[in-house]
Amino acid sequence: MSYLIPSDYKKQIQSTNLAQVIRGDATIQTAAEDTAIDEASSYLVQKYDLATELQDTPQWDGTEVYKAGNRVFLDAPAYVAATSYDTGAYVHLTVGAGMAAVTSIYKALQDGITGAWDATKWKLVCPQYQIFNAKYPAPIFNMQGSYIIGSPVFWKGNTYVCLIASRQFSSDTVLQFTNLSNIPYSNIFPDDPAQGPQYWGTPTPFTIPANTDILNTTFWLPGDNRCKQLVTYLVDIALYHMHSAVAPQVVPVQREKRYDDAIKWLNKAAKGDITASLPLLQPIQGRRNRYGGQIKNNNSW
Predict the structure, then answer these.
(1) So what's the pLDDT on residue 27?
(2) Helices 253-271 and 228-246 meet at what angle, rounded to 10?
């Protein structure tokens, strides 16, 4: 399993060319993807919530229990005329050939489907490898958010309900702290061992039950919630390492350039020169993120 999925490579390399690069050895691709993720993490780990962003994107398995925020891709076996399919079965079917080929996922609408393909007996679901996201049962807790009593939040696998409203500081109160880094946070983390229960009550675990269909919109939403730029650059880094693993002396110039561009982007994202669409780390309890500067005085006479 990996953050990347097979269709991520389509924009940068054809599947036949990719197979030639790795010489049919899937372990080369897996190792290159792992290296790319480790390389990217070394730049981004201090600023971004990589545990959330870089989680695996496995193929959906209806028998599995999933957590809110998980992502999966949808694939299914190819349709076989000699097989009998019942209601709810998933298959994939490819229409066209070569560059014009389109592969889609279908869901059976009745029992006992067999023989030649009959589109009236199937529901078109989505393109092959479509990503789905497990919905959050409540807004994700934000340390800087403003909550009133009764506000629901989701944090680390559990839902909570606000029992004490967020603290609000007047401008005069803020001035008393002198430095921005001294201003207390407005909220207590729901899982704070000392004050969490007082502010947020008892946690309620949340999971998506096994045998929940991927088309159940109460729990699942179609769509790729990964950072599109990061996906592109990880593919570039992985392809560079695949070429290096097979023929280190003849890595194509294009792959070297795209690798260099990816590293430049990671540097900028790490330094804050660009705003990457990645989830930011929230302050760790007891180890606050520090930032400088004095509080501006708005004096008037």
Answers:
(1) 93
(2) 140
For residues 174 and 17, give the distance between their C-alpha atoms in angstroms, rounded to a whole number: 60
Per-residue pLDDT, 289: 43
Domain ranges of the chain: 152-205
Contacts of 104 (CB under 8 A, 6+ apart): 92, 93, 95, 124, 125, 126, 127, 128
Note the pLDDT tens digit of each residue in 36-82.
999 999 999 999 999 999 999 999 999 999 999 999 999 999 999 99
Interatomic CA distance for residues 93 and 108, integer angstroms:
12
pTM over 0.85: no
Of 37-41, 237-241, 281-285, the poorest mean pLDDT is in 281-285
Q: Can you give the chain as a three-state secondary structure string?
A: CCCCCHHHHCCCCCHHHHHHHCCCCHHHHHHHHHHHHHHHHHHHCCCECHHHHCCCCCECCCCCCECCCCEEEECCCECCCCCCECCCCEEEEEECCHHHCEEEEEEECCCCECCCCCHHHEEEEEECCEEEEECCCCCECCCCCCCCCCCEEEECCEEEECCCCCCCCCHHHHHCCCEHHHCCCCCCCCCCCCCHHHHHCCCEECCECCCCCCCCCCCEEECCCCCHHHHHHHHHHHHHHHHHHHCHHHCCHHHHHHHHHHHHHHHHHHHCCCCCCCCECCCECCECCCCCCECCCCCCC
CB-CB neighbours of 102 under 10 Å: 10
Name 155's Cβ contacts closer than 8 Å, sequence gap at least 6: 140, 141, 189, 190, 191
- Provide the percentage of residues in the chain whose pLDDT is more than 90: 73
